[in-house]
Design brief:
Blueprint (H helix, E strand, L loop, with lengths): L2 H14 L12 E6 L3 H4 L3 H13 L3 E6 L23 E5 L6 H10 L16 E4 L16 E3 L7 H10 L3 H8 L5 E2 L1 H4 L33 E5 L1 E2 L19 E2 L2 H6 L7 E5 L9 H10 L3 E4 L9 H9 L4 E7 L3 H6 L6 H13 L4 E8 L6 H17 L2 E7 L16 H15 L3 E5 L2 H12 L4 H10 L4 H11 L10
Parallel strand pairs: 1-2, 1-3, 3-4, 4-5, 7-10, 10-11, 12-13, 13-14, 14-15
Antiparallel strand pairs: 5-6, 8-9
The protein binds iron/sulfur cluster.
Iron/sulfur cluster binds next to loops.
Length: 490
């Protein structure tokens, strides 16, 4: 089958398996572009929420497009109308992670657009970016876009679209966009970021956030996603969701959450940075499970896991209990203000075992500032103990300092240091404990993107052009941001 025909067939096939697709043909035509493939995009509550808000709460139309899963020929197409994305009135990206940068560049190229904003022509659609990345360090992405919405986009999306509709001439558009709270226009603001968009209430207007589309082809198959709360009331020093970074924790009532669940949803995912801090979580989960649906929670703090909760999660189809330790030792967790004790994680493991779950998954960071060999030894002891209770998967990630956190200036531990600790952990733990780790190399690339400025844009372009492997990133960062090279040998 010719490639272009197969591409359209895949789109039609996926659409035929969706429930809740929104089709409209009115006002501006906005391409919502996700720089990762369809399954990941459809598991993004933020992406699905903007799609719903534009189509249902503005006089404009949003259609979806994604980084292709494999080979792609010809212009990138939207799913709803099979229109070339480059012909739309506006292209809006949602970017979650630094390492999605090559996907963003490839999408722009597939749209027939020059990746850098200053190289694009005046008649081409403006490119706007939003999403979780804007809460951390948006500067490396600034040269690719005409504007960014910093922070929570729901409150400003209407005014932004009105600007695009009213000012077709690029320079006038940019100067009006720059007047919207939280909208950063790189050409005008340069590297001076305006304050983020005012935080929204989690339950007003078109909120709470929920996914209008349910599909078996999502990374969370056939799951209705709904925001149970927004933000966090805690203060972990490494986390961009911490209380002081936004408006704290904003709750959605259980009635409002339940009202979003359509009759055909057989699985429900409750989303939020700190879902287990929701005071009505247990009755909410119970109601959903009693209705015969499966349930998923996006975040479980070990000190909030109770026997009743694990029992309900087990009844709701969960076979894995997932939680985060973050710091390797008690001392480090105290320094990170994480507030989770080893005993609480051990208790969570026992509850998971007692309620018939098949494994515990635990997130840990290595390379945290001040980490010593003794911290790693303490971690090994704890993971071995948990591994004797229930099969354990340790998901170990290098610590990467993020902007807008108290640890924003903390140095990267170094590729060699991280990889040495990972090797040591594997040797001490496998095969009794399954270790899944992100290498020091990719932690370092993430660090350069999390800490770099606009000089990272040409580095991203070169790395993407040379295949996006680590060697390509290393050469590109050496050329454009050599200050990060000291952590290669460290
Ligand atoms: S790590 Fe979790 S508990 Fe800590 S601030 Fe972030 S979201 Fe809140």
């Amino acid at each position: 089958m010719p490639v272009r025909h197969a591409q359209k067939e895949l789109i039609r096939h996926r659409l035929s398996r969706e429930q809740g697709t929104l089709k409209k043909n009115q006002g501006l035509r906005v391409a919502l572009l996700y720089p990762s493939p369809y399954p990941l995009a459809m598991s993004s509550l933020g992406y699905q929420t903007i799609y719903r808000i534009i189509n249902l709460y503005t006089p404009h139309t949003a259609e979806r497009a994604f980084l292709p899963d494999g080979r792609w020929e010809g212009p990138l197409l939207t799913y709803e109308s099979l229109s070339p994305v480059g012909n739309m009135d506006l292209i809006a990206f949602s970017l979650a992670y630094e390492l999605e940068a090559p996907g963003l560049i490839r999408c722009l190229e597939l749209c027939g657009l020059a990746p850098l904003a200053q190289q694009r022509q005046s008649g081409e659609p403006p490119v706007i970016l939003g999403g979780p990345i804007t809460v951390a360090n948006p500067l490396p992405f600034a040269p690719f876009v005409d504007a960014m919405v910093l922070g929570e986009a729901e409150g400003v999306v209407g005014s932004l679209l009105e600007c695009v509709a009213n000012y077709p001439e690029r320079n006038r558009l940019l100067s009006h966009l720059a007047e919207i709270p939280g909208v950063y226009v790189p050409l005008l603001h340069q590297d001076r970021l305006p304050p983020p968009a005012p935080p929204v209430l989690a339950d007003s207007g078109p909120l709470p956030a929920f996914s209008p589309i349910i599909t078996p082809d999502s990374a969370f198959p056939s799951m209705h996603l709904v925001e149970a709360e927004r933000g966090c009331s805690r203060s972990c020093t490494f986390c961009i969701m911490r209380r002081s970074a936004g408006a704290g924790m904003r709750l959605v009532s259980d009635d409002q959450i339940l009202r979003t669940i359509p009759a055909h949803a057989s699985r429900v995912g409750l989303v939020g940075a700190a879902v287990t801090d929701h005071p009505r979580l247990l009755p909410l989960v119970e109601t959903i499970v009693e209705s015969g649906r499966e349930i998923g929670l996006s975040s479980l703090r070990a000190d909030r896991i109770t026997s009743d909760l694990v029992r309900l999660l087990g009844r709701g189809g969960n076979r894995t209990l997932t939680t985060a330790l973050d710091g390797a030792s008690r001392r480090l967790r105290q320094e990170l203000c994480k507030g989770v004790e080893a005993d609480e994680v051990i208790q969570a493991a026992r509850l998971a075992r007692d309620h018939g779950m098949s494994r515990l998954k635990l997130y840990v960071m290595v390379g945290v500032p001040g980490e010593q060999g003794s911290d790693i030894e303490e971690l090994i002891g704890l993971l071995r103990e948990i591994g004797q209770i229930i099969p354990l998967v340790a998901s170990i990630n290098p610590f990467v300092a993020k902007a807008n956190t108290p640890l924003k200036d903390a140095a990267f531990a170094g590729i060699r240091t991280i990889d040495r600790r990972l090797r040591y952990l594997r040797k001490a733990l496998e095969p009794e404990v399954t270790v899944k780790a992100i290498s020091g190399r990719w932690g370092w690339v993430e660090y350069a993107l999390a800490q770099g400025g606009m000089e990272m844009a040409p580095a991203m372009l070169e790395a993407a052009a040379e295949g996006g492997g680590f060697a390509a990133w290393s050469r590109a960062i050496a050329r454009h941001a050599p200050r990060f090279m000291r952590w290669v040998a460290g």
